[in-house]
């Protein structure tokens, strides 16, 4: 499944009302560690059909970033049944991202 680009218009339906756990990647184009994480996030999205993987560009969606108290990126958040269940900040190996789920 492809990574879903999340924004204020689709966030509620794609994340809060999702029937699967959602891995949200908060990132920015200027962020080196975010760019390093992108291939792993893409792999997770393609390998795991039991989750939804979404990306939020913090520069384009500052209110969503603020709602999740993002102060450093990359930040990964896991939302299950509309509730935040786990977060991680900074570059992480793929297996550590999977462990968040």
Query: Can you give the helix content as a percent range?
Result: 25-40%
Report the sheet with the most strands, covering strand number, pairing sense and barrel closure.
5 strands, mixed
Number of strands: 5
Q: What shape does the CA trace take?
A: globular
Characterize this entry briefly.
The protein is of the alpha/beta class.
Outline the structure in words.
The protein is α/β, with parallel strands linked by helices. Helices cover 35% and strands 27% of the residues. It has 4 helices and 5 strands, in the order βαβαβαββα. The protein has helices at 11-16, 32-47, 62-67, 94-100; strands at residues 4-5, 22-27, 52-57, 75-80, 83-89. The chain has a 5-stranded mixed sheet with strand order 1-3-2-4-5. A hairpin with a 2-residue loop joins strand 4 and strand 5. It is globular and about 30 Å long. It starts with a strand and ends with a helix. The model has no long low-confidence stretch (mean pLDDT 96).
Secondary structure layout plus pairing:
Layout: E1 4-5, H1 11-16, E2 22-27, H2 32-47, E3 52-57, H3 62-67, E4 75-80, E5 83-89, H4 94-100
Parallel strand pairs: 1-3, 2-3
Antiparallel strand pairs: 2-4, 4-5
